[in-house]
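Working notes for the structural subgroup meeting. M.R. asked for a predicted model of this chain before we commit to crystallization trials. I am recording the input and output together here so anyone reviewing the notebook later can reproduce the run.

Input as submitted:
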Amino acid sequence: MAAPVRIGTCSFADEALVTYWYPPGLPPRERLGWYAEHFSTVEIDSTYYRVPDAKMVEGWSSRTPEGFMLHIKAFGLMTRHPVRLEQVPPDLRDGLPVDDRGRVDRPSRELRAEVFRAFLEALEPLRAAGKLGGILFQMPPYVTWKPSSLSYLEWAREQVGDDAFLFEPRHRSWYEEGVRADLLRFLEERRMTWVVVDAPKTGAANVPDTLVAVTTPIAYVRFHGRNAATWNVRGGSAAQRFDHLYSESELREWVPNLRRLSDEAEEAYAYFNTNNQTNAVAQAPAGAELLRKLLAEGNVPSA
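Returned structure, recorded in token form:
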């Protein structure tokens, strides 16, 4: 049977959701529970900036119903992004090399492994409740298709153990025609889930292409929007980069792809990373609701 496509948003606490989607005056601790009345899954992206603590994760678990699924974005140090020393938990800062801008600079794998352990231990409440979908490794644009990148991915996969490993590169070298078959085979052999993306159609090296494929029992799609004008604005925020309200025609293009992914996978997810607002409408939930409607019309199961 086809897997129902679980639809949700990247974050449940973005400013646009708080201002334009949640009921006015809803207390912060009640937001996730209200969100879970409308969607069956969420992607937690705040963990890219900080390693969560177990109390926070327990709150995510306790405020969501049985069967709700959360995917967690890996902390920046885990995906080879620059992070400031103060973003690292205090008990893990000793020995970390820091550059002249106060950023952790190329730590050893031994030190990086300590961060992995702390991150993974914090997720135990979700794991125990059966609500941990997987961990999203969104790599920076300077991580290109080359042996050293593959070596790091193999090492990171080993650290994650039995948890699902979701991989999203940001450099177009991973999408080249001569690379795709080797890439998908590499991921399949190591139980790493390929993340399918929808993004602006430009030739920029740091704008991912769309490669519809399944490499594990999980199908995973992220809708980043199609705003080419804001993608590479220097100093722009995430809300500006992903500022896009999907049209019906744009999402209708995805119905056949999601039908295929649903047929090939045991679990299927689609998340909207469009964390801004248009005419006082929060873009992410609006896109999610529209996609759900279109999938229903196309007889593609969703949840």
